[in-house]
Structure formats: structure tokens, C-alpha cells
Write a structure and sequence with these properties.
mainly alpha; Cytochrome Bc1 Complex, Chain D, domain 2; two-stranded antiparallel ribbon; 2 strands; globular
Length: 431
């Protein structure tokens, strides 16, 4: 007869503890990735260098970036001197405002998009009605619900502020003779195009050459702010560190990436097929799609989105093919030359980047969804999806389990990197 040795209770407890820990660790192990999946993941990072903007000769000029950063935080660029670019794009809120719909002088009709990696965008605004970063910046300044200040008022501000005037002229040359009020009224705004509007009448009374001189000032201001915004780059998230560890066979680095995020990543590139629209290192295809989301009030679809946006960018007097572009024949201008529009574009919205998405709630073009979990559930189940006759049928119900939704959210959270040079988060002492 063989007798089993007597095991002390303390030893048995320790053994059971380590066995439970081992089982727990195995349960939390990341998923197995196929060779093809690993190849896809390796292509998702790093974010490449900021592409050049041939339409903006000052895009990478540090003096212009400083001048633009000063203006980005300057509340005098608004009718009531209370609204700056940073009002809706608040650095403390990851360059968003945390609201469903944008609010400046009044309430807007769409959600404020974040500014992370905007230099990588192909089109601007939810509907793509601008084709360059600098031309996008012109519209909020003159919008009556955002800044509500005219281009003439912008020019006069630069003229009467000695610091702004000195910095501007060091970059762009002498300002026009704005003190000549008979040539340059104190206000006058061609937006909206209403002949009965007093500001429109003031603008129309000016000589075309003086109008162009003011437009040049207006554009140079926008090109400077764009130079600043090109520095708002996010590329070192936990996910990026994981991909780098994969490429260097850094076992410890791979182990620091949570198993739940790994499972979410596998779902993202696999059954979820999220990368169909959110592909590449910036997690966007830069194009426009039908999300089948109802408007913020729950009503039917009524925002024409890309359909009107494409029309507007084609006739925009400040687009990449305009006289204000520093390269009217380059690749950016070619987008306009070959842009086709039609009813198939009705109701399509631009795919935003997913970088820092966990820090930029609420979500979608009307801020309809308040959490990342709500976003994942929308694409999982398409609850109350809006009726659509659009030929694009890429959205199908995924029927994700609760744990799969959690994993997908964990992956999205791992795309967070909101660390910037603190000097970029505030107004400089001087322009």
C-alpha cells in the first residue's frame, strides 16, 4: 500500500493560489493572430510624417506657426470678442468642446470635430466642403454662428495691433493701407451673399483690387493658423508601442498591451471589418460614407452632407485651384479637377480619425452617440437605423456579444495619445 504524503494546509493553499493565478493568466492571454493579421497590424503604425501642403508656402514655417498659434487663442477674432478657435477646439478637451453641436456666437448644426492629425486629411468639414486646411479655417471666422467677424475686420485688427502688424508684415509683407477708410470700410462681409445686407454693400463698394488685397490678408491669417494646427500630431499611443514591439520582437513590450485590446484589435481587422473605412495609420480612409444614423432629434435624414459639400468645394473661390493657392496644379488641386458629384453623395459624412477617439466624446456628425460603447453597439446591432436608399451597403449587423463590445472599446481606448509639447497648448506671449 502506498501512502500519499501529508500536505500541510499552508502549502496546499499556496499551490491552489498559484494554480488559480496561472489559470487566470491563461484566461487573459491575448488571441492568436495569423500571419496575415500580423501583416495588417504592422501596416497600421506608425503614423507617417506630416505630408507637405504645396498650396500653403508657409505650412512648415515656424514663424507662421507661432503667429497662427497666437491667433488660434485670440478672442478678438469674433464679433463679441469672446470666441476663439480654441473655444470649440479646447486643448483641455483634446481639441474638441465636449458638446453635441458646436457653439460659438450661436449653436451650429453639426458636432465639432477634433483637430488631431488634421494635416493628414484629404477633405475638411463633415461634408468635405474645403479641400485644404487653410481654406477650411476661413469659413468659421465669417460664420454668423461661430466667430461672426468679416475678413475686413480681421485685416483692421492686424493693422491696429502693433504686435500683430509687426509679425504679419515680417512674414507676408506690408499690409494694405487700411487706414484709408474710403477704400477699406471698417466692416464688410461677403457672407452671406445678400445684396441687401449692409456689410455686403460695403464690400461691393470696394475696388476689386482692394477686395483682393483684403482676401490675401485673410488667407495669410488662415495659412498661419494652419501652420500651427499641422503640429497637433498624435502618433505614440499604447497601440503604436505594441506594433513597435511586434516589429522588434520585444516580448515585454508586447505583454504590456492589454489582452482585451488585442482581442478588440483582432475583431477590428477581422469580423468587424472596421478598417474598411477606418484603415491605415490614421484610422480613416478620408472619404464619405452612410452611417445610417438618425439626426440628433431622432428625425429622418435631412442633411445632404457630401452632396452639397462637393458642390461647395468646386465653386469655392479659395479652393486649391484658386489664385490664393500657392500651387494650383499639384496633387491637392487635382482632387478638385477629378471630383465628381451626384445624388449618390447625398447624406454621406466624412470618416473621422479614431486616434484619441476615447478623449473626444460625444461622437458622430451630430454628436448623437455619447460613449464609445454606444458607437460600438450602433455598428453591432444598427438599432433604429435610418432608412436609406443609398447604394452603399457596407453596414451589416455584427451581433457582437457584450464581451466583444468591451474588447472593441478597449482597443479604441488604446489609440489614445494626447501628449503634446505644453507650449502648444496655450497662447504665446507674443505673436
Amino acid at each position: 500500500m502506498i501512502f500519499a504524503p501529508k500536505i500541510r494546509p499552508q502549502i496546499l493553499f499556496i499551490a491552489l493560489f498559484f494554480l488559480a493565478a496561472l489559470c487566470s493568466a491563461r484566461a487573459e492571454d491575448g488571441p492568436e493572430f495569423s500571419g496575415q493579421e500580423l501583416a495588417i497590424v504592422r501596416e497600421m503604425s506608425p503614423l507617417p510624417p506630416v505630408p507637405p501642403d504645396e498650396t500653403n508656402a508657409f505650412a512648415d514655417d515656424p514663424r507662421a506657426a507661432r503667429f497662427g498659434q497666437f491667433l488660434f487663442f485670440d478672442r478678438r477674432l469674433s464679433a463679441n470678442e469672446r470666441v476663439a478657435c480654441s473655444t470649440c477646439h479646447d486643448p483641455a478637451r483634446a481639441f474638441t468642446d465636449g458638446k453635441m453641436l458646436a457653439e460659438g456666437l450661436g449653436k451650429g448644426v453639426r458636432h465639432t470635430p477634433a483637430l488631431w492629425n488634421v494635416a493628414h486629411n484629404r477633405w475638411y468639414f463633415w461634408d468635405g466642403r474645403a479641400d485644404t486646411l487653410w481654406s477650411q479655417l476661413l469659413r468659421p471666422i465669417e460664420s454668423p454662428t461661430e466667430h461672426g467677424i468679416s475678413r475686413l475686420q480681421v485685416a483692421h485688427l492686424l493693422c491696429r495691433d502693433s504686435q500683430l502688424k509687426t509679425s504679419y508684415e515680417a512674414l507676408f509683407g506690408q499690409l494694405p493701407p487700411l487706414a484709408q477708410k474710403d477704400r477699406f470700410p471698417s466692416s464688410g462681409c461677403p457672407v452671406p451673399d445678400d445684396p441687401a445686407n449692409p456689410q455686403q454693400k460695403a464690400w461691393d463698394s470696394m475696388q476689386p483690387s482692394d477686395q483682393e488685397a483684403v482676401n490675401r490678408v485673410f488667407v495669410n491669417v488662415a495659412k498661419s493658423i494652419a501652420a500651427y494646427e499641422r503640429r497637433l500630431i498624435s502618433r505614440n499611443s499604447l497601440f503604436d508601442q505594441f506594433v513597435d514591439a511586434l516589429k522588434t520582437n520585444d516580448t515585454a513590450g508586447i505583454g504590456r498591451y492589454p489582452a482585451s485590446a488585442q482581442r478588440g484589435l483582432k475583431l477590428f481587422i477581422g469580423r468587424g471589418n472596421c478598417r474598411l473605412c477606418h484603415g491605415g495609420p490614421n484610422f480613416t480612409d478620408g472619404e464619405f460614407h452612410d452611417t445610417r444614423l438618425r439626426t440628433s432629434d431622432g428625425g429622418p435624414l435631412r442633411d445632404a452632407a457630401r452632396y452639397l459639400g462637393a458642390e461647395q468645394v468646386l465653386r469655392d473661390s479659395f479652393n486649391a485651384r484658386s489664385i490664393y493657392s500657392d500651387d494650383r496644379t499639384g496633387p491637392t488641386a487635382e482632387k478638385i479637377e477629378f471630383l465628381a458629384n451626384g445624388p449618390q453623395n447625398w447624406g454621406l459624412f466624412k470618416t473621422p480619425t479614431l486616434r484619441n477617439v476615447a478623449a473626444t466624446a460625444p461622437y458622430m456628425h451630430h454628436g448623437q452617440l455619447t460613449t464609445l460603447r454606444a458607437v460600438a453597439l450602433h455598428y453591432s446591432l444598427l438599432p433604429d437605423a435610418a432608412d436609406t436608399h443609398h447604394p452603399e451597403r457596407i453596414l451589416v449587423r455584427l451581433n457582437l456579444s457584450d464581451s466583444e463590445v468591451d474588447d472593441l472599446v478597449a482597443f479604441l481606448e488604446s489609440l489614445t495619445d494626447i501628449k503634446l509639447d505644453p507650449a502648444l497648448l496655450r497662447q504665446p506671449e507674443f505673436p
